[in-house]
Amino acid sequence: MIKVNENFLRLKSSYLFSEIAKRVQEFQTQNPKVEIIRLGIGDVTLPLPKACIQAMHKAIDELGQASTFKGYGPEQGYSFLREAIAKHDYQQKNIDISPEEIFVSDGSKCDTGNFQELFSQDIKVAVPDPVYPVYVDSNVMAGRTGEFKDGEYQGLVYLRSTKHNNYLPDLPSQKIDLIYLCFPNNPTGASITKEQLQVWVDYALEHKALILFDAAYEAFIQDSTLPHSIFEIPGAKQVAVEFRSFSKTAGFTGTRCAFTVIPKECFIYNSQGEKINLHKLWLRRQTTKFNGVSYVVQRAAQAVYSEEGQQQVKNNIAYYLNNAQLIRKTIQELGFHCVGGENSPYIWIECKQDSWDFFNFLLHKAGIVSTPGSGFGKSGEGYIRLSAFNSLENVTLAMQRLKEVFNS
Ligand SMILES: *Cc1c(COP(=O)(O)O)cnc(C)c1O
């Protein structure tokens, strides 16, 4: 008899986006004339940078010629891309990361989801709350949690991030082995300073813990004092892995390319307390379970680092951040407390009522789709997320509607 992996049965059905879709559909059916504005999306909307398109066309032509055809590539990614990443994202910013420490992949969702399989079943795991659900669910699937009770999985440690701690979790009071951090954060849009990040690195060094640092939104950082990489922090190379993606940076959500950085000096431990090299372990995992990102897409990612590519990416980010600023300004003018929108495409708004009630209010009174904070975890209750991934025209119209609703 074929038996199920019962860990999967523990997963709470993720009803957030289906429930949003259902409510929006119902509203639209009842109000066919209202033009709904979607500020709930966690996906980019601007087209790919021209430099990437050109590189892809060229790469496709290469695949059509016997002399330049490519079959399987290296699982870790082509050298041309790993070298471009190491040079532009790290070495030019005085961060000592080599191309060999970079693993190119088809997404940070897969990498942050898969990475936990390198660790023992009995480690203590801490996740942010509110959270990007991948960190939680992948550990549930792996059997590292108990039942879902009162909005939380037993056995997981939740790092509360609310208005009361400025959306920066306090250090856990118990000993943690694996810590997920995401800055600039999804969903809150909050960012972390070097000093604040140093506290987490020091904790990890002291407790022989590991930090999985999700930097998917680093390209949105405008404040030059904020760290783009955890490896800007002294000691981090021994205790951290960094995940970055071209998805939000360059509009690759449908094109698929990301990378994970594992310094060669990063170690974990076996049951005897002996050091195990994490870089070698992930390489072994990837060469077994992954067969690389397509050549065409890696050429497109490389083009992000060309002079034109850099300019085009910068323009796209500036466009979204302009939207974000408009949202943030309006929300504050209307008297709401919010965070994010300065170094992030997300604005996290305190609604002083049930998240879903406020979601309904915005939908019915202003025709605006938001994301209820409670969908990201217990500490998200009482908040909603607005996203800047829409057109300036739509965002402007949405903000006009909000002003009318709240000022009348
Ligand atoms: C969008 C996003 C990613 C990127 O995922 P990809 O699989 O690379 O598209 C990673 N982490 C967070 C928190 C995100 O919001």
Kindly report the name of the CATH homologous superfamily of the largest domain. Answer: Type I PLP-dependent aspartate aminotransferase-like (Major domain)
Strand % is 15-25%
CATH level 1 class label of the largest domain: Alpha Beta
Please compute the radius of gyration using only Cα atoms. 22 Å
The biggest beta sheet reads: 7 strands, mixed
Give an overview of the whole structure.
It contains 13 helices and 17 strands. The chain has two domains: 12-41 and 308-407, Aspartate Aminotransferase, domain 1 (Alpha-Beta Complex), CATH 3.90.1150.10; 53-305, Aspartate Aminotransferase, domain 2 (3-Layer(aba) Sandwich), CATH 3.40.640. The protein is an alpha/beta fold and 408 residues long. The strands form five sheets. A seven-stranded mixed β-sheet has the order 2-10-9-8-7-3-6, sandwiched between helices. It starts with 15 loop residues before the first helix and ends with a helix. It has helices at 16-30, 50-63, 79-90, 108-114, 133-141, 194-207, 236-239, 246-250, 278-289, 295-303, 307-333, 355-366, 392-407, and strands spanning 37-38, 102-105, 125-129, 148-149, 152-153, 157-160, 178-182, 210-214, 240-245, 258-261, 267-269, 275-277, 338-340, 346-350, 368-369, 371-372, 383-387. The chain is 38% helix and 15% strand. Residues 42, 107-109, 132, 182, 186, 214, 216, 245, 247-248, 253, 258 line the site of pyridoxal-5'-phosphate.
